[in-house]
């Protein structure tokens, strides 16, 4: 019962995580490895869309942390919250490099 009360009150705990996750609003190719993660799709009006990221772009860093694989991307994003501002670096399909600050959207509850 005490854990339920902590969750209800929004009290932080090392035993559970509550609330929404911050997301860029992209689907990443799970086979991505190497110099970045390939974006498969972008959710309209979410953070990546607003930053200018499109399908086919390759995300190379989030918050100055290099992104080298699908698993690495998930690790970099796991503790982010809606409203967090993060610098996102990517290469477009023509090979041009871009960086923008994205304000993360609300994803599914953690």
How does this model look, in words?
The chain has 110 residues and is an alpha+beta fold. It is built from three helices and eight strands. Strands 2, 3, 4, 5, 6 and 7 form a six-stranded antiparallel β-sheet that branches. It has a two-stranded antiparallel ribbon with strand order 1-8. The model has no long low-confidence stretch (mean pLDDT 88).
Write the layout of secondary structure elements.
Layout: H1 2-9, E1 20-23, E2 26-28, E3 37-42, H2 47-51, E4 58-62, E5 65-66, H3 70-77, E6 85-91, E7 97-103, E8 105-109
Antiparallel strand pairs: 1-8, 2-3, 3-4, 4-5, 4-6, 6-7
User: Helix-strand pattern, N to C?
Assistant: HEEEHEEHEEE
Mean pLDDT: 88
Distance between the termini: 20 Å
Helical amount:
10-25%
Query: What overall geometry do the principal axes of the alpha carbons give?
Result: elongated
Tally of helical runs: 3
**Structural class of the helix and strand makeup?**
alpha+beta
Rg from Cα:
15 Å
Q: Could you provide a short overview of the structure?
A:
With about 110 residues, the chain is α+β, with helices and mostly antiparallel strands.
What features would you highlight for this structure?
110 residues, alpha+beta, 6-stranded antiparallel β-sheet, two-stranded antiparallel sheet
């Amino acid at each position: 019962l005490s854990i339920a009360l902590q969750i209800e009150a929004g009290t932080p705990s090392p035993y559970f995580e509550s609330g929404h996750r911050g997301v860029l609003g992209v689907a990443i190719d799970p086979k991505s490895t190497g110099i970045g993660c390939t974006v498969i799709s972008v959710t309209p009006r979410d953070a990546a869309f607003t930053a200018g990221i499109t399908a086919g772009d390759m995300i190379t860093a989030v918050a100055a942390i290099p992104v080298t694989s699908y698993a690495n991307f998930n690790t970099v994003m796991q503790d982010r919250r809606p409203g967090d501002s993060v610098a996102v670096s990517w290469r477009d399909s023509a090979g041009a490099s871009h960086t923008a600050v994205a304000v993360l959207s609300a994803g599914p509850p953690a």
